[in-house]
Amino acid sequence: MLELSILGFLREQPLHGYELKARLHGLNGHIRPVSDGALYPAITRLVRAGLVEQRTEPGSSAAPRRVLSLTEAGRTRLLALLREPKDAEITDGQRFFTLLAFLHHLPERAEQAAVLRRRQVFLDTPASFFYRDGKPVRAEEEPDLFRQGMLRIARATGREEKAWLAEAIAALSD
After folding, report:
1. pTM of the shown model
2. Confidence of residue 66 (pLDDT cuts 50, 70, 90)
C-alpha cells in the first residue's frame, strides 16, 4: 500500500519527502504510521525502478530539498495497481480506504465499478470475528459485552458501506 500511496499522491502533484510523509500520515494516521525507515527506502526503490524521479530545488531555508514527481512509467504502474488490487487490498478495510483514495485516477468508470464490485462481493460473504461450530457468531448470540460491541459496530459499518457501494456502482453505471 505504501507504493500505491506514494504513486497516488505524486500523480496529483510533485512533492518533497516531508510533504509526502505528511500526506501519508493524513491518509493512514495512527492506524498505520509510516516511518522514515520505510518511506525513504521505498522512494529510493521507486526512483531506481524509474517510476519516480527526483530533482533538487532550493529549500525555503538554507538546505536544498528533493522534489519527487511521477514518471510515465509510474503512471502506468499506478493504473495497474488500481485496476488489479490484491485480495488483501479488497478485504482489509484500511487498505481498501487507501485504494479508494486514488481510485479516481482510473480513467474508465467501468474499471472503477469493477473494483467496487469486488469489495461488494467480499462484504456480502457471511463473516464474523468469532465462530461457533464453524458458523459466524452474530452480535445477538454473543454473551461477552465487548465482543458484542465489536460485532454490532462491524455490522453497522458494513451496512453503511454496502449502501454506499450500491450507490457508487449505480452512479458509475449511468
Report:
1. 0.87
2. confident
